[in-house]
Amino acid sequence: MRSRLAVLLLVALLALPMVPPARAQNALVVSVWGGNWKDTVDRVIGKAFTAKTGIPVEYEVGGTIDRLAKARVAKGNPLVDLNFTTTHVARLYISDGLYDKLDMARLPASKEIAKEAFRSDSHIGSWAYVYTVVYRPDLVKEDITKWSDLWKPSLKGKLALPDFDPSHIITIAALMEGGNEVNWQKGEAKLKQLKESVAAFYSTDAQSQDLMKTGQGPVQVMLSVNAYHLQEQGIAVKVVQPTDYPGVVGIDTMAVMAGTKKAEAAHQFINLALSKEIQTELVKALRAGPVNLGATVPASLKGQPGIFSSTAEWKERGYIMNDEARAKNLPGWREWFTANIVKK
Amino acid sequence: MSFRLLPAVAVLAVFAAALAALFRWSLLEFVPGSLQPGGLTLANFRAVLAPQYVGAIRDTVVLSALTTVLTLVCAYPVAYALARTPSRRVRSLILVLTLAPFFTGAIVRTYAWVLVLGNTVVTWPVPMLFTERGVLVGLVHFSMPTMILILAAALSHIDPVYERAAASLGASPAHVFRRVTLPLSMPGIVSGGLIVFAWTLSAFPTPELLGGGKVKMIANVVKDLGLDSFNWPGAAAFALLALALTLALLTLVGRLSSDRAA
């Protein structure tokens, strides 16, 4: 009897991780990154959505790939109704049939958004930013104004680059040599010249900010949102609007999960997130660029890297990579980057 | 099969299923830009034999071996003091100092090393942060508490009478240590060494944070392939390769150490 009870307890324990967390029955479940991202989405969009529709919002938080892996195993019977992720990773969701097509008739606010924010039939931009050059003027005496300044011998041993996604610097090197993200090989030789300048590679946003704070990586190819966050914390970093080539744009996107029973509510949430009022609040909270061209941008952020408030700014001040090419090339880029730049 | 073994079988079945899934994924074709794998292939195993991946395996083995030796050298005197100090108060103090790092957590400890090795607290004559040297320091510090406790347990089982007898027959303290204490503590050295070697082979946060992306150990490469390149078949193949290598190395080290201990 006792042994049988022990076995039952063991089976129950093993099955525990498979039991989905208890959710309010009518709640809309949103998958998003943790920390400030989730807090901001909840405070700015979630609360307003609940106030408007009466539908509570719950969140599934995690890293980009954790959430992708979870979505994949729950295919057909999704644990979440709406997903936030980067535009090129969204391509992986789409390739696996994890997203529904968006019903534009249910997204009237999309009429006000920049055309660059329409990423596919299934995913749409929520906010934008750039990867650009950021540095600490107290540790780097000369001015940095261009991407090409990164190649200056005086910056040897001061540069930190992301190794989890080297697509930005690979694309910039290719642009410098007359190529782009598709024929990126044109920039290979140029990139190899940068090897000696690299002090460290970072794998997460937190590592990037730590390298900047401690001065271990005082010049970085960095996410503009993180740079503004450092400025808020009192770290005097300069966010460069490069004069030779634009910053590389990143767009975070929203999509409705395939198989959700709350497609209507998910569309309502997305429509609200795209509205002028919510976009204005998102810019203030995240220091990211709005996708709604009618959103108000605070004077302190107007014209800053990654903050685009007009069609012309979207076009001139940011380089947008082809999502599909990026998703397909990223594994090859990483392999080349590890073998030729990271390896001693 | 006895009903009593059923819980163990149930647990082991979960482990076996996970290994089987890893094996299955390692044989599926990776299609860049897609989550859907292709058909069966051995290409993943060929791909992970590229120089940068083999280099990561070599670095992991070298760092693990060095960590084991250095941890042993640093931990032995502390373990000896812990086992042989007559004062209860001093023993408690050593124990607290030994165990304190355990309770701070790996991430906190490693971040502290980022500051120490990064010339913000001490100015080092050679670069330490983001080098193998720095990673080695972090790994040794991480492994010390476990090694100290294992060695102290082994040393406390040695009857001091043997050492006193050797000394009374005219052996110098160094001679007593070399001919009596050290051989009798060999079981502790073997088990501590094996444990430290095994877990250093799978170290992740220390090389991730102190290596600054320049020092990659096996677990870092698996993460790079799986989470950054979305190459799950490649990550599975590399993890399997590393698993086979780890088992082979542990068997070899275990056998060599046992022979030596015998």
Describe the fold and architecture:
- The complex is a heterodimer of chains A (344) and B (262).
- Helices cover 39% and strands 16% of the residues of chain A.
- Chain A is of the alpha/beta class and 344 residues long.
- Chain A folds into two domains: 24-128 and 251-319, Periplasmic binding protein-like II (D-Maltodextrin-Binding Protein, domain 2, 3-Layer(aba) Sandwich), CATH 3.40.190.10; 129-249 and 322-342, Periplasmic binding protein-like II (D-Maltodextrin-Binding Protein, domain 2), CATH 3.40.190.10.
- In chain A, strands 1, 2, 3, 4, 5, 6, 7, 8, 9 and 10 form a ten-stranded mixed beta sheet that branches.
- In chain A, strand 1, helix 2 and strand 2 (57-61) form a beta-alpha-beta unit.
- The longest helix of chain A is centred in the C-terminal third of the chain and has 20 residues, at 323-342.
- In chain A, 46% of the residues are buried.
- Chain B is mainly alpha-helical and 262 residues long.
- Chain B has one domain: MetI-like fold (Orthogonal Bundle), CATH 1.10.3720.10.
- Helices cover 76% and strands 0% of the residues of chain B.
- In chain B, helix 3 (51-84) packs antiparallel against helix 9 and helix 4 (88-104) packs across helix 6.
- Chain B starts with 5 loop residues before the first helix and ends with a helix.
- At the A-B interface, helix 1, helix 3, helix 4, strand 6 and helix 7 of A face helix 1, helix 3, helix 5 and helix 11 of B.
